[in-house]
Design brief:
alpha/beta, 7-stranded mixed β-sheet
Amino acid sequence: MIALRELGRLEEALEVFEEYELNGGVDPELLALGHELRRDHADLTEPDGAHPARDTTATTDPYPSRREEGPFPTEDDLPSLLYGPDDSPVEAPLPQNEVPESLFADEPATPAPAPFRVAALFEYVGGTREMDDLAALGRAVTRLLMAGRLSLDNYEMRALDDGYAVLLRPGAPVLPLLDVTLREFADRVAETGRARWRVTFLAGEDDEGGRPPSESLADDVLRAHAARGVAVFSPSLYRELVASGYDGPAPQALTPGGAEDGWYVLAHAPRPETVSSVHGPFLLPLRLPLPEPAGHTRSVVYATSPGLTLDRDRRATFYYEVDLTDRRLPLEESGPHLDGAPVFKAAGTAVWRVTDPVGAVRAQAELNISDLVTGHLRQCLREVTLAYPPGYALQAQAALDWQLGRLSPTWSVVGWRVALTPVATTRAPSPPTSGESLLAGALRAAQAVILGFDGTLTRLGTESGDLVLRHRSWAGPADDPLDLLRLAVRSSVSVASSMEAELAALERAAAQRAAPVPHADLLVRTLAAKGVPLAVVTDRDRNAAVTYLRRRGLMDCLPGRVHGRDGVRDALMPDPRLLLEAARRLGADRRDCLLIGSSDFERDAARSAGMGFVHVAPGPPEALTPSLFDSVGLLPLLRAARTL
């Protein structure tokens, strides 16, 4: 009501007073101000209903800090519920035209303090505001007052329906407040979320009437530039600002060629990737109010000597602003390149919301949420690209969705709406090397391909050290548990059965956490997409191998299924029995099958079965390696498979 009167909006101020009066308001100062509003409104309204231009030179104090002289109704003057309609108080009231002399005691009159005047209005305009937005605006204004190092004795801050008013004592300059507001405007606006600001500076030192720029012009500029905030001020304040040596954001005229209509500075929305849910730390004010949030859409976390807390106490020295609303980050990333071209592109949006304000403040020092989200997407996209060829777009999307969902900070919830699409490219792959050409020829000549497991597709890494130590005393210096098992089968069936069961349990546990060899998943899916029949053979426990392959989503690529150890009755390689079973399951002649493996036992088994063999090793082969083909890692095989 007070601010509306100061702006000359008497009708709106009068409506606020009448609503207050209807609700039973009895504050004598507000009642007196309301009666003045009625008189002012009656005086300013012309017979035809028009209103003259407002006169901002009025000396009436818009924010009375003391009672004005003259009698005010007291509790004794008001009707009492203790008396009936025919009853009356013990003391009869004085006649209306008689005033007791006792009211005119000879006391020296105290001079009235100089009234404050409104210097600036910080208001929200347009749009739907969240529940805690108004208090957040108040805290932002408090930070401006503190950043300007303004004398707190000369300033007051009062709440309005849509914002806050900053008041000055007469003679206190408004220029410091204007200067700090323009310099920090964009940062303060960004800290209050998506609400839009309008800041109006009402008067400069030579503005006798204190006439501010037009609100409609300010709102037009705000809409025209799709900005988050606008600060407007008068031509005289602009001249003072320039004369002071101001070098902050450059003001612009509100109207083209109309510098006398006022000047403005805009605050635009920050880039989404720079948006954080946590702002601070900010120095906690001692003498300025700090409006408290309700905790629905905003929260304040206080830093005290013991740590962080949501409850303010006398030990608090700093505080943080935490936004609890949904935050959105547009995403667009390309996966790693194969043969010089990307395979997949991911585009969409990540949506997150802080659920633990204290945890979010702690995590802020470690990693920004935007960096966390984009980094996780890149890693997931890399894993998908290295596991799925373009023809597996649906499976790749499902894998990406699952992997993205694994990001779950303890202080936030994250949702993803990301679509994966293959990248069409006309770029020809790089020409194959001589070794890759040989591998491609071997793959084309094969009716079916049989893949080794441990060492070729994955490395189980079984924790079998204790098993080896317990049996080394009779088995000799063997470090590989499979070597021990081979010896046990030849020496004692009962010992072999016990050892095999123990080793199978270790292998099944290892299969739950094993990771693929680089390019292994992609090689399997690429060969399957090219129509090559596939099977897997291994000396490891068959159920362990099935568990791993099912976890990697590769079982559908293996029409020849998985052939592995199932107790001690199955002979281990170099016995070719498993290879022959796989060939029969694939319906292929054993001489037309190609085994891809990484051990000498697999090589010898392939030779016994009459199959071709590709030896996969992590480094260049030794000079006398008796393998038909050699591949340093799986990448040469992958490049060869892509040429089929």
